[in-house]
Amino acid sequence: MEHIQMAQPEERLIQTYECEGCRRTVTQKELLIPRGPRKGEKIVADYGCKCEDIRLAQEAEENREKLRTRKMREFFDYYSLINDSLKTATLENYQSTSQELAQAKQQVAEYIREFDGKKNLLLNGSYGTGKSHLSVSITKALMKQGKECLFLSLPKLLTKIKETYNSNDITEDELLKVIQRVDLLVLDDIGAEHHTEWSNTKLFEIFDDRSGKATIYTTNLNSKELRAQINERNFSRMMENTEIIKMNGRDYRRKEF
């Protein structure tokens, strides 16, 4: 069998140097093209430089991060049970109506700065003082840091779980797995749900699945009322590694008046 010999370009070493970009040793050569339309043409080629590979790898990583961020926002929008009035809530546009609420805002800012994925918060106080607003603000700030967050109104969540029993779109197991895996879960308005043995059982499942992971709770009830509503076992689990932030004051939603 006849073997075809491919002509190799003539080459001349120009220099060897260290690339300032990738810090690799680069060999620069002058090549003489031996055949084809560009026969006789001289070109300069660098061997050993990894700058282009590094640039492409960085672009690929940036694209992966953008895709992950987009998916997180889609995930948040799909699963979160959040009122339209809270969709624009941020820490910056929260306006406290009392010294206690100003202190609550400061504590929330510290929680965001020091977030470790384990510490819980309980925002407790009267109606309309901005507990939900601050909770949503935390999820938005942490999502900017690449964390997966979920905001769920507990009464709406329990309704959603019941709806899965007669739906092919999403199963209860899928919903609970999402709740379990996120970096931060907000359970809003605990105590506003209809008090039943079933609701307390589901609440315990959620608390148990979230053990060791950061969860934020909001409630209008005091400790005695909350114990009576969710039972002693759930109350005890809810208080594990939980900092309480008191939020009493004028109704935040009616501050203009």
TrEMBL record:
Keywords: ATP-binding, Coiled coil, Nucleotide-binding. The keyword Amino-acid biosynthesis does not apply. InterPro entries: IstB_ATP-bd, P-loop_NTPase. Residues 87-121 form a coiled coil. Residues 67-256 form the IstB-like ATP-binding domain. GO terms for molecular function: ATP binding. CDD domains: AAA. This is ATP-binding protein. The keyword ATP-binding applies. It comes from the Bacteria.
